[in-house]
Amino acid sequence: MADSYENLEILQDIGNKIKDEYSNFTTLNIVIIGKTGVGKSTLINTIFGQKLAETGIGKPVTQAIRKIEKKDIPLVLYDTPGMELKGDNTAQNLLDDVVDLINNGTETGDVNQAIHCVWYCINASSGRIEPTEIQFLRDLAIKTKYCNVPLVVILTKSILKENVKQIKEEIEKENLPIKKIIPVLSENFPTDGGMEIKAHGIEQLAWEMNDILPDYVKATFISIQDASIALKQEKARIVIKSTVITVMVIGGLPIPTSDAPLIMTVQMDMIAKITAAFGLRIEKEKYMTIIYAILGTTGATSAGKK
């Protein structure tokens, strides 16, 4: 009976630690810009592993920008419609709205409100970028330079290598202040000959984002992205390595009582961090499996200081 109570207490501790990990995530805010039909929705849903663009709660921020968010996910996407030659969504109107959004977010001083990255999407299948878009990117970078928001150009629908090469060279010769140009094909593309071009570039985008984003929001991105398991595994390895070092230090301390409780706490912290990194929402009944795993690994540690 005592063991059952002890297990229930551990169960509650693990549950609380996992909740704390999630509650400590900074909300990731991304602005996504691109003409109509460039594949923004497919890109969003592929990298975040769910139909956010279709099922997320969207509400207008301005006439040109829609805020998309979903309950219990620390992510806000600011989606813009395609630029038009005239009307409300001209390049200038859209630029003004995006600049205001970025500047206002920075001025709040709240990292949960600040814009952390801008994705500018271009349909690479055209093999070219419009002069209006070049000017838009240049003006956006200039008008928000003090906000230090990284600007990433994503070449969607990157099917033909020659088109991708051509458009990359065209952008690069403009010397725009952008962080990266990343070609992606968000979903498999069937050809006329019955073959299929496999989706690619999404995992690269995930790794590039991990390098580009501010440190305080990287844990959020790793958890909510679904494009790279390897990125989650890398985070888990870092957590495990840190835990091993901590356990070794505890084992070497001249503590007069058993060091097993301290090591147990460290191991529970490790489980919580890894769970959060993989974006797992573990139901209460599944915690017991984790507990037994921890108890199994702590059997040896309990033979430490008595």
> How many distinct folded domains?
2
The CATH homologous superfamily of the largest domain is termed P-loop containing nucleotide triphosphate hydrolases
Query: What's the tally of helices?
Result: 11
Radius of gyration: 23 Å
How many strand units? 9
Strand order of the largest sheet: 2-3-4-1-5-6-7
CATH fold call of the largest domain? Rossmann fold
Give a structural overview.
The protein folds into 2 domains: about 25-225, 3-Layer(aba) Sandwich (Rossmann fold), CATH 3.40.50; about 230-305. The protein is about 50% helix and about 15% strand. The chain is built from 11 helices and 9 strands. α1 (about 1-25) crosses α10 (about 260-275), α4 packs parallel to α5 (about 130-145) and α10 packs across α11 (about 285-300).
Structure summarized in a few sentences:
This protein is α/β, with parallel strands linked by helices and 306 residues long. The chain contains 11 helices and 9 strands. 49% of the residues lie in helices and 13% in strands.
Question: Key features?
Answer:
306 residues, alpha/beta, Rossmann fold, 7-stranded mixed sheet, two-stranded antiparallel sheet, 13% strand, disordered C terminus
What's the helix and strand layout?
Elements: H1 2-23, E1 28-34, H2 40-47, H3 52-55, E2 57-60, E3 66-69, E4 75-79, H4 91-107, E5 117-123, H5 131-143, E6 151-156, H6 161-172, E7 180-183, E8 189-190, E9 196-197, H7 202-212, H8 215-224, H9 229-252, H10 260-277, H11 287-298
Parallel strand pairs: 1-4, 1-5, 5-6, 6-7
Antiparallel strand pairs: 2-3, 3-4, 8-9
Helix pairs in contact: 1-10, 4-5, 9-10, 10-11
